[in-house]
Amino acid sequence: MSGQRAADEPYTTRFETGVSAVDGRRVWLETTFFYAEGGGQPADCGSIGDVAVEDVQRVDGEHVHVLAEEPRFRAGHRVLCSIDWSYRMYCMRAHTASHVLYGAARRLCASADDGEDTEVGDDTLGYAGFDIGDETVRVDLEAPTTIDDETLVELDRLVNRAVWESRPVSWETVPVAKAREREGIAFNETTEDGAVSSGRVRVVTIGAEDDNDANGSRNPWDVAACGGTHVRNTREIGPVTVLDWSSPADGVTRVEFAVGPRAIERRETEKRATFATKRALGVGIEAVPDAIARLQSETESLRTELTATRRSLLETRLERAKSVDRDGSRWLVTSCSDVPLEFLRAGVREVVESDAVDADVVVVVGHRDDGETAAVIASVGDRSVADIAAEFGVTCDDSGRSERFAQVGGFEVSAAELVDELVGHQ
């Protein structure tokens, strides 16, 4: 036994029992089928008598029911208890789905290791945590191989295939020592302490020993120590959609998925996006990846051409730049406001460092994203750009600033007027 009747009789949602004790809003019952929060699964909600249950916790091995308000009943009274079936069933589906996903991940890791779709030992994939949220569920895996977007697609396929195959779900209690010796069982005593009681551990099995699935995998699909509530058959899980993955810690991959309405909504979003993409590309769904790859290649080629064109334009402008003498230093001043300032910063640096200009100071005037006139300054001689910027009456922007290159902004004149002002100041 796991110490929670709810785990062993998850379909029981109405029962009558005696009240053992009442302390304000906290209630102890002689017998309870409410699931107390634990192992990543939230507490049941419902009512005791006519008072809503807000939380259920296990304290010193006993269930403590926290009510929304102080009840009128007292110790010794009999009460009718009702568990919210909709939420209980959601948790049962979500928890069982997490076991199915773990089994799918083990098979994918095995395929990555040896190229075959076979059952995997405990040393291949580790279980690092689990949590049921109101809309999404997460499973943390200690994975030896990288889990990426392509893996998510395969996880989604395998999970929904296992649901479709209507695999039986069963649970039993066995001695802890026996569970530790069993090959292929997921048993993390840190995360599943709620599954252990009096030297015995509750083991949940997805599938049967003699099952055979479309992938030729050995069964059962998954065996794990677990104290949570589960459905009796994978077909009761319903739709599952794998949502995303992340890496919350080194060696840990977090997979998020949804069951029920949230899963259906996500599928709708993905399908709408897919249809919109195929219409925009003018191809069938199967051809979308290739069409996107072609567009990416074309975009990269255009980006390369654009960069080369901007570089050529900048060089031409510098070749035609007005040369002025300011206090014995030769300045090259030009405007290139039709090129983004971000490119000008990099372009001016490349041109100057290639010794393509003959000047002590280079000033290229352009515009910031907000439309304000700005300039890129390069010091070819000994003076710092900060000193040069001081002659403009402005300070250097911190972004990308160095002793020889900087961007200055905040001018209240147009680009053309700034160039004329600089050229005319001789």
From TrEMBL:
The keyword NAD does not apply. The keyword RNA-binding applies. GO terms for molecular function: ligase activity. It comes from the Archaea. Keywords: Aminoacyl-tRNA synthetase, ATP-binding, Ligase, Nucleotide-binding, Protein biosynthesis, RNA-binding, tRNA-binding, Zinc. Gene3D superfamilies: 2.40.30.130, Threonyl-trna Synthetase, Chain A, domain 2 (3.30.980.10). Residues 27-269 form the Alanyl-transfer RNA synthetases family profile domain. It holds the Pfam family tRNA_SAD. PANTHER family: ALANINE--TRNA LIGASE, CYTOPLASMIC, ALANYL-TRNA SYNTHETASE. Belongs to the class-II aminoacyl-tRNA synthetase family. This is Alanine--tRNA ligase-related protein.
